[in-house]
Amino acid sequence: MGLTATKARPGKRDVPKSRGGRPTKSAALERDQRLIEVATRLFLDRGYDATSLDAVAEAARVSKPTVYARYGDKRGLFAAVLRREIARWLAPLAKAAEVQLTSPANISAEQRLVDVGREMLTFTCGPDAAAFSRMLTAQSINFPEFAKLGEEEGWLKAVATTARFFDHLVAQGALDVEDTTIAAEVFLDVVVGHTHRMATFGMPLEIKAAEKRMRSAIRLFLAGALGPAGRSRSASQPTIRRRPSR
Fold this sequence. Notes:
This protein is mainly α. Helix content is about 65%, strand content about 0%. It has nine helices and no strands. The chain is elongated.
């Protein structure tokens, strides 16, 4: 994130003002971005409890009333930081899934899932993601709204993105699953769940070992998602899905 938020710089930055005395729209956007970036670095460096709005305001070179007016309190500021970080973690998954939607149909389902899983490992198991996961877990006991934000902005959106990708694979005949939402939940759990938990516990990410585990997990997932051996078919041979008779 490229900021040294722990060292405050003297003085306040001049903010261009409109004729009404308020900051211009571009200046307000720049100020908000600076506030979030500084707060992100402070939360990562110091943790939630040790980060104060005074420290954020001083490091971002804005007044404390400005922080209160924009975010209400520390919970509001942390929620804004968390929302942005989750969006950053999900962006590679959405991009990888979108790429796969336009990939040639003759690429195997396993290779497609490996490509998506690799992006997930890199971004959701990194040190920043693990640090925020620890803070989210610790603070959700007292502030359940953080848990709700993590579920709605993070988990549910990741599941929805993966489910849409699975819908595409099902339509191509590359997967045979009845409920792509449940399949997406299982996939996310088996592919990155364990590695993300270990990262949250402070274990360093060994990318080669994590990718080896990911590939094995994907093969296990596909063993069920492809259906019985007699019904498995290549992605280049789409067929009409069969439903059990009622």
